[in-house]
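Pilot study result, target chain (110 residues):
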Amino acid sequence: YPTGAGIYAFSLSAMFVQVCDENGAILMPALPSHLRNLRFHGLLATDGVRVSGEVRDGKLVRLDLTSGKATAWRFRTPETLLSSAAFRRDLKVDGPDARGLVTVSLVKTA
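Predicted structure:
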């Protein structure tokens, strides 16, 4: 049985990272609209990738991905967070899909 503290920690983490299907992690899928400025650090996503980032005025301003190994990785995130984001040229950005999620694909070097 999970403890109350465990459920609370899981719920907080799920606002930032959700792994629910084979299409890759969903980053920041459930941020409440009143949380317009926040930072998170070292949350485990999939394939050993850890995610850190910052949202300012409701827009993603920093996203760092770390991994101990080289891997092809993809994630999805709400399009509304990315409206002013600039991506590196080696990233592939597709979408949004029917749920309003944009898919970002990359090859992460160790």
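One observation from the pilot: The chain has a mean pLDDT of 84. A full batch analysis is planned for the follow-on phase.
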